[in-house]
Every structure is written in C-alpha cells, then in structure tokens.
Amino acid sequence: MIEINLDIMLAMRRMTSLELAEKIGITQANLSVLKTGKAKAVRFSTLDSICKVLECQPGDILKYVPEE
What we know:
Elements: E1 2-4, H1 6-12, H2 17-24, H3 28-35, H4 44-54, H5 58-61, E2 62-64
Antiparallel strand pairs: 1-2
Helix pairs in contact: 2-3
C-alpha cells in the first residue's frame, strides 16, 4: 500500500490545499482525492509540480507500507 503524506508537507510549508491546488493547476477536488489516498494513479507531471512548489522529494510525500 502507498501512503500519502501530503498533509504533513503542507503543514510543514504552512500552505493550504487550496493554495497548492492553485499553484500546480489542478482542482481542489482532485488534490483532495490524492491527499486521501483514493487516487488510483498520479501523473509524474503532477508529482513534479507538487515537489517543485513544496520544495521536497517524492519520498517526502509517498511512502510504501507493506500490507500485513
């Protein structure tokens, strides 16, 4: 399972979901789907934009958690 830690990075950068959505050019609804882990896929271009805006690495946002 892939865990999404976007909320943590947003808090560390003192940024709201709305601000991030506007800066990367996606809707807040689509960002919410990603944040809640309901997304089935993430485009590399979206991940690239998120990392640029939040000044982080993909591994700061995505974490692999083995299923038990």
